[in-house]
Known about the structure:
Number of domains: 1
Number of strands: 0
Number of helices: 4
Strand content: under 5%
Amino acid sequence: MRDTHASFLFAQDIDIAYVSKRLGHINIQTIQNYYLKLMQKKTHKQDEQALKLLSSFREN
Length: 60
């Protein structure tokens, strides 16, 4: 249930710092090491968003 809970929150774009605190982790590194590996799709989506944003600067 814990993994499902964290994964659901990430999928809803809830901030990683909030999820980390909610799960009782001492620091954000714990959650990054474990849960973000489970969220590869989200990482790819953020890569696309970052590239789109950077491309928009180049066009201006």
